[in-house]
Design a protein that fits this description.
The chain is of the alpha+beta class. The chain is built from six helices and four strands, in the order αααβαβααββ. It has two domains: about 110 residues; about 110 residues, CAP (Pathogenesis-related Protein p14a, 3-Layer(aba) Sandwich). A four-stranded mixed sheet has the order 1-3-4-2, sandwiched between helices. The radius of gyration is 62 Å and the shape is rod-shaped. It starts with a helix and ends with a strand.
């Protein structure tokens, strides 16, 4: 803008110098030059306005650019922060995926174990139901006969004679079985002779109960004295059922 003002001033000086030095200028020529000078002044003024506007726009553009740069820097800082947060979340996500896969694997293993246990439970439940039903159908007299015959078979296999059924000692045996059922504990009769007792539950047949009883009795120290005694000739087995339990008493003696 300063350059335009200097040029305008120089032009005016030159024109006045020309007119002052000229010996005689016609009025018409003078008017023409004056008009041209006015036009040039007007153009110069317009140029000055445009130049001022351009300078104003330049200053505004500079301030605006600085503001944009500041916003850009802020945005870049936020982007860097978000990028770091994204990377952190990505690591956490990958760890969560691994944990989830491990949990799924553990769940599958646990599910398989549960299914296996559930299958075993169903099988045991079926066996239990069969045993309970079977036990409920067993008659006390059947058990007495099965035990009596199995003991005699054991005696014969060991070269001894089979014992005969003793009605009187049966009374002592049944009284003892009823006493065990009442007191819920192992008890022995006061009858003087050879004896042993057994509890039985959850068996399917009388023969199974007899075999279980004899197996237990064989592992006791007085087995041979009570069951393989050559001197006695009579025996009795008494069974009393209470709930799902059979209380069994075996008694042997010289007399019936």
């Amino acid at each position: 803008m300063k350059i335009v003002s200097i040029l305008l001033s120089s032009l005016v000086v030159v024109l006045f110098s020309v007119f002052s030095c000229a010996p005689s200028v016609p009025q018409q020529e003078y008017d023409r030059v004056s008009n041209e000078l006015s036009a040039v002044k007007s153009q110069l003024a317009s140029l000055e306005d445009k130049l001022a506007e351009a300078e104003s726009l330049q200053a505004y553009s500079k301030a605006y650019n600085e503001q944009l740069k500041k916003q850009y820097d802020i945005s870049m800082s936020e982007i860097e922060t978000l990028q770091a947060k994204y990377e952190e979340l990505s690591i956490t996500y990958e760890e969560s995926i691994r944990d989830l896969e491990a949990a799924d694997s553990q769940l599958e293993t646990t599910q398989a174990e549960y299914e296996e246990l559930d299958k075993q439970f169903e099988e045991l439940s079926e066996q239990y139901d069969i045993l309970v039903e079977g036990t409920a159908e067993i008659d006390e007299k059947e058990i007495e006969q099965a035990v009596f015959e199995l003991v005699n078979k054991e005696r014969v296999e060991n070269g001894l004679s089979a014992r005969k059924w003793g009605e009187n000692i049966y009374k002592w045996a049944i009284a003892n079985s009823r006493m065990m059922a009442q007191n819920k504990q192992i008890e022995y009769t006061e009858y003087i002779g050879w004896q042993d007792v057994f509890w039985a539950a959850r068996y399917g047949t009388a023969d199974q109960i007899a075999k279980a009883a004899l197996t237990i009795w064989k592992n006791q120290r007085n087995y041979e004295r009570s069951f393989l005694n050559a001197g006695d000739h009579y025996a009795a087995v008494a069974v009393h059922k209470s709930g799902e339990i059979f209380y069994i008493t075996y008694v042997a003696d010289y007399y019936y």
